[in-house]
Amino acid sequence: MTTTFKYQAKDSSGKTVSGTMQAGSQSEVVADLRRRRLTPIDIKKTGGGLKMFARTGQKPVAKKASVKKGELEVFTRQLSTMLSAGIPMLEGLEILADQAESQGFKYCLSRVVEDIRTGADLSKALEPHQKVFSQIYVSMIRAGEVSGQLDVILTRLAEYLEAAAHLRSEIKSAMTYPVISLALVIGIAAFLMMGIVPSFKPVFESLEVELPGLTVAIMDLAFWMRDYWWLLAGSIPALIFGIKAWKATPKGAYTWDAMMLRMPVFGKLFKKVALSRFSRTFSTLIKSGVPILGAMEIVSETAGNRVISTIVDKAKDSVKAGETLSDPLSESPVFPPMVTKMIGIGERSGALDALLEKISEFYDQQVEAEVKSLTSLIEPLMIAVMGVVVGGIVLAVFLPIFKLQEKLSGG
User: Fold this and answer.
1) Residue 313 has pLDDT above 70, yes or no
2) At what angle do helices 135-147 and 150-191 cross, to 10 degrees?
3) CA gap 4, 23 in Å, rounded
4) Of 4, 59, 64, 95, which sits most exposed with the smallest number of CB within 10 A?
5) Most distant CA pair in the chain: distance in Å?
């Protein structure tokens, strides 16, 4: 028994086509469309029949698009699997919208579904939701629509997002311990300086000995902190606000990012992270069919570091003028010779995307090794800092007692 199905699909040029077909089931319609190199968007029975995958549940109540950590990666992977299995895109999106965990993401997907139902491409439907779907995401989806390999591009995009999330996790784990340790050191030092040290003043006055310079300095600082704690407390948020305002300026942002790359201890890690992100993003975009100039523009805007962005912009101008990509990159000290030489080989061999992927994998391993090295280095370093700060305060308190003991022994 055959049924009449009405379908919408995308051809290899990204154009939406529609029509009707006699088939025994929806899967037969999908199979026939795929044989004709069409990507199914929506399939339903004619005569008001229900879709094979109907929307269920209540309408989302959120009023703005947002996404929880890890939710976008799962969504991308699931949508890729659904398209590969022959489920039309619109129905796949409806299913994923219904099962979205956060109301913000559910709202975002519902808007995307509505736009696609009115005839918009997926990339066009995603564009208004830039807080959820980045420029990289939209550009790769557009490349997938043009090439007719949307499911393949979604798989590649899911892998990119998962790798980026893993890299962020590595950085977070590297920064968590020193931040907590530094906060503990500051807290203990503040407690000793404002709560303990001032109480020793009457004791020192009763000793009738000349106080050592370290003790005088620590006592003066302790009383100043106790009397002007409000100024100290207010200066911290003021300093943070000032730094943020300075970073909001183009010159300030560039200077800050340059300082991060030259920062002691952490500078090497930040540089490797920047190179890994540059290589992975560039490789993923080129492999997905995004033109090299368009890919470089996206890489520049999403590099996460103004120094890298400026270098990529200069390289883009060089490529636009018909020159190579590797030459302007090699002029910058940020890009090591190994990276620029591999890029040069990739340009000559036509395997730029593959070599960029190798560079990304190399620096991912380097970042992981650097994180482990920093973790083992930071622990004794923070213990040493705590020993110097707390030990200095304790020494300043006990020095007058030692001096009195020497005076009494001498007498």
Assistant:
1) yes
2) 170
3) 7
4) 59
5) 117
